[in-house]
UniProtKB/TrEMBL annotation:
One of its GO terms (biological process) is DNA damage response. Residues 7-298 form the Carbohydrate kinase PfkB domain. Keywords: Kinase, Transferase. The keyword Transferase applies. The lineage of its organism: Bacteria, Pseudomonadati, Pseudomonadota, Betaproteobacteria, Burkholderiales. PANTHER family: 2-DEHYDRO-3-DEOXYGLUCONOKINASE, HEXOKINASE FAMILY MEMBER. GO terms for molecular function: 2-dehydro-3-deoxygluconokinase activity. InterPro entries: PfkB_Carbo_kinase, PfkB_dom, Ribokinase-like. This is PfkB domain protein. The keyword Kinase applies. GO terms for cellular component: cytosol. Gene3D superfamilies: 3.40.1190.20.
Length: 308
């Protein structure tokens, strides 16, 4: 337990990953996943104090997660241990058509998280609170908890960041649109990806997309464009912040890394354009290794790339 409340809190589901070692092989490598957990780790590696708000099972997978968070200096005070529900897991298999994800998360501990479980004191003290479309989609109870969390945090002065992270296996598009529209009304920083927002808005133009996002309430939109960088918009200014050229091998979790680095720099006092340049560098470096967590860079490596 930390002596003070974390600056940045994230809500959502963390999972154990089993990634097929090679196409057609029966061996799977164990790793970690969960978009908002990845976000927390990325922010922590940039020097921010972070905490995760969720639930895990009282099982070996849950203990693997708590050990990983402890090693990453992510505060787990606000992770509830559910003795009657499991930690979620997913499998990644590889074939000629790319990789496929299969999830075992129905009835998971995180999906049973409720408003009553929220750490109100920590939410009131946070400088930023982060959630994603997955945080809202895993269950009705978790969705209610996420909305209660950001309402409480904002009423106490925190900024709310939101990554659309659309997963249509979790909910139908009409419901995703309606719920995310409501989330955007309570969002300060929107961190969408191109594929998500083209599906959500029906637009295929950068300016039309960020206009649609800004109209709902955020004061900053950082539209992630992969290796091209990010299109950053505020009500008064917008421009492309270029990405960094690296030898990429795996983009898993790069968007989560961008978000964590971006919000860490906003909390540290950067303007959105400087934060995006830094986050682009962090996300680029995260693609030079395999997996969602292991290749997330620390601040020193990011600063070296930013400074050229």
């Amino acid at each position: 337990m930390t002596a003070a409340f974390p600056e940045i809190l994230a809500l959502g589901e963390a999972m154990i990953e089993f990634n097929q070692s090679q196409p057609g092989r029966p061996e799977f490598l164990q790793g970690f996943g969960g978009d908002t957990s990845n976000f927390c780790i990325a922010a922590a590696r940039q020097g921010a104090s972070t905490g995760f708000v969720s639930a895990i099972g009282d099982d070996p997978f849950g203990r693997l997660l708590t050990g990983m968070w402890a090693a990453e200096h992510v505060d787990t005070t606000y992770v509830r241990i559910d003795r009657t529900a499991p930690t979620g897991v997913y499998f990644v298999t590889h074939g000629v058509d790319g990789h496929q994800f299969d999830y075992l998360r129905a009835g998971s501990a995180a999906s049973r998280y409720t408003v009553a479980d929220l750490p109100l004191d920590a939410l009131a003290a946070a400088k930023a609170v982060h959630l994603s479309g997955i945080s809202l989609a895993i269950s009705a109870a978790a969705c209610d908890a996420a909305f209660a969390a950001i309402d409480h945090a904002r009423s106490n002065g925190a900024q709310v960041s939101f990554d659309t992270n659309l997963r249509l296996k979790l909910w139908p598009l009409p419901r995703a649109r309606a719920v995310m529209r409501e989330a955007l009304r309570q969002t300060d920083i929107c961190l969408p990806s191109w594929d998500d927002v083209t599906a959500l808005t029906g637009a295929n133009d950068r300016d039309a997309i960020v206009d649609a996002m800004l109209e709902h309430g955020p004061r900053v939109v950082a539209l992630k464009l992969g290796k091209e960088g990010a299109y950053v918009a505020t009500p008064n200014e917008r421009r492309v912040v270029p990405g960094f050229a690296v030898e990429a091998v795996d983009a898993t979790g790069a968007g989560d890394c961008f978000g964590g680095a971006f919000v860490a720099r906003i909390v540290a006092g950067d303007d959105p354009f400087a934060a995006a340049r830094y986050a682009n560098a962090a996300a680029a470096l995260s693609t030079t290794g395999y997996g969602a967590v292991a290749p997330i860079p620390h601040r020193e490596a990011v600063e070296r790339l930013v400074q050229g």
